[in-house]
Design brief:
Blueprint lengths: L3 E5 L4 H13 L5 E5 L8 H6 L2 E3 L5 E3 H11 L7 H9 L3 H10 L15
Helix pairs in contact: 3-4
Amino acid sequence: MKQLIVYYDGLCPLCQKSKRLLERVDRFRQLTFSDARRMPVEQQPRLLERMHVETEQGVRYPGIEGIRLLTKTLPFLLPLAPFVSLAIVLRIGAPLYDGVAKNRVIPMSCTTECSIN
Protein backbone atom coordinates (compact mmCIF):
# COMPACT_ATOMS: atom_id res chain seq x y z
CA MET A 1 0.00 0.00 0.00
CA LYS A 2 1.37 3.41 -0.99
CA GLN A 3 2.56 5.74 1.74
CA LEU A 4 2.64 9.45 0.93
CA ILE A 5 3.83 12.60 2.68
CA VAL A 6 1.63 15.66 2.21
CA TYR A 7 3.39 19.00 2.71
CA TYR A 8 0.98 21.80 3.55
CA ASP A 9 1.09 25.36 4.93
CA GLY A 10 0.35 25.11 8.65
CA LEU A 11 -0.67 28.79 8.86
CA CYS A 12 -3.19 28.65 6.01
CA PRO A 13 -6.80 28.04 7.12
CA LEU A 14 -7.68 26.54 3.71
CA CYS A 15 -4.69 24.19 3.92
CA GLN A 16 -5.60 23.18 7.48
CA LYS A 17 -9.17 22.43 6.37
CA SER A 18 -7.88 20.37 3.42
CA LYS A 19 -5.58 18.47 5.77
CA ARG A 20 -8.50 17.63 8.10
CA LEU A 21 -10.58 16.43 5.14
CA LEU A 22 -7.73 14.22 3.91
CA GLU A 23 -7.25 12.81 7.41
CA ARG A 24 -10.94 11.83 7.49
CA VAL A 25 -10.86 10.02 4.13
CA ASP A 26 -7.48 8.34 4.79
CA ARG A 27 -9.03 5.12 6.12
CA PHE A 28 -5.88 3.02 5.60
CA ARG A 29 -3.50 5.61 7.12
CA GLN A 30 -1.51 6.08 3.92
CA LEU A 31 -0.79 9.76 4.52
CA THR A 32 1.68 11.53 6.75
CA PHE A 33 1.35 15.29 7.02
CA SER A 34 4.24 17.71 7.32
CA ASP A 35 3.93 21.45 7.91
CA ALA A 36 6.08 23.07 5.22
CA ARG A 37 6.87 25.91 7.63
CA ARG A 38 8.81 23.44 9.77
CA MET A 39 10.99 22.34 6.86
CA PRO A 40 14.50 23.73 6.28
CA VAL A 41 14.32 27.42 5.31
CA GLU A 42 15.73 26.82 1.82
CA GLN A 43 12.89 24.39 0.99
CA GLN A 44 10.05 26.52 2.37
CA PRO A 45 9.40 28.99 -0.49
CA ARG A 46 8.69 26.24 -3.02
CA LEU A 47 6.73 24.07 -0.58
CA LEU A 48 4.60 27.02 0.54
CA GLU A 49 3.59 27.99 -3.02
CA ARG A 50 1.32 24.97 -3.28
CA MET A 51 0.72 21.67 -1.54
CA HIS A 52 3.22 18.90 -2.40
CA VAL A 53 2.73 15.15 -2.18
CA GLU A 54 5.84 13.00 -1.86
CA THR A 55 6.09 9.30 -2.75
CA GLU A 56 8.06 6.65 -0.88
CA GLN A 57 10.77 7.09 -3.55
CA GLY A 58 11.13 10.77 -2.64
CA VAL A 59 9.47 12.17 -5.77
CA ARG A 60 7.41 15.30 -5.00
CA TYR A 61 4.31 16.23 -6.97
CA PRO A 62 3.21 19.86 -6.54
CA GLY A 63 -0.27 21.34 -6.79
CA ILE A 64 -2.76 19.66 -9.09
CA GLU A 65 -0.34 16.78 -9.80
CA GLY A 66 -0.29 16.07 -6.06
CA ILE A 67 -4.09 16.17 -6.00
CA ARG A 68 -4.15 13.64 -8.86
CA LEU A 69 -1.81 11.34 -6.93
CA LEU A 70 -4.06 11.58 -3.86
CA THR A 71 -7.19 10.78 -5.89
CA LYS A 72 -5.48 7.73 -7.39
CA THR A 73 -4.18 6.55 -3.99
CA LEU A 74 -7.02 7.07 -1.53
CA PRO A 75 -9.97 4.74 -2.23
CA PHE A 76 -12.53 7.31 -1.06
CA LEU A 77 -11.21 9.87 -3.59
CA LEU A 78 -10.83 7.41 -6.48
CA PRO A 79 -14.12 8.48 -8.17
CA LEU A 80 -12.62 11.98 -8.55
CA ALA A 81 -9.45 10.75 -10.30
CA PRO A 82 -10.86 10.88 -13.88
CA PHE A 83 -12.08 14.45 -13.38
CA VAL A 84 -8.75 15.64 -11.98
CA SER A 85 -6.87 13.89 -14.79
CA LEU A 86 -9.21 15.43 -17.37
CA ALA A 87 -8.67 18.89 -15.88
CA ILE A 88 -4.92 18.35 -16.22
CA VAL A 89 -5.21 17.14 -19.83
CA LEU A 90 -7.43 20.11 -20.71
CA ARG A 91 -4.85 22.39 -19.09
CA ILE A 92 -7.35 23.95 -16.71
CA GLY A 93 -6.39 22.04 -13.54
CA ALA A 94 -3.06 23.75 -12.86
CA PRO A 95 -4.27 27.33 -13.49
CA LEU A 96 -7.33 26.69 -11.33
CA TYR A 97 -5.28 25.17 -8.51
CA ASP A 98 -2.62 27.88 -8.72
CA GLY A 99 -5.26 30.61 -8.72
CA VAL A 100 -6.68 29.32 -5.46
CA ALA A 101 -3.21 28.78 -3.96
CA LYS A 102 -2.03 32.30 -4.83
CA ASN A 103 -5.16 33.96 -3.45
CA ARG A 104 -5.46 32.12 -0.15
CA VAL A 105 -5.41 34.26 2.97
CA ILE A 106 -2.68 33.65 5.54
CA PRO A 107 -3.47 35.30 8.88
CA MET A 108 -0.61 37.29 10.35
CA SER A 109 1.34 35.23 12.82
CA CYS A 110 4.06 36.39 15.15
CA THR A 111 6.24 34.72 17.74
CA THR A 112 8.21 36.37 20.52
CA GLU A 113 11.08 36.77 18.03
CA CYS A 114 8.90 38.76 15.64
CA SER A 115 8.71 42.53 15.64
CA ILE A 116 6.66 44.88 13.54
CA ASN A 117 8.07 48.36 13.02
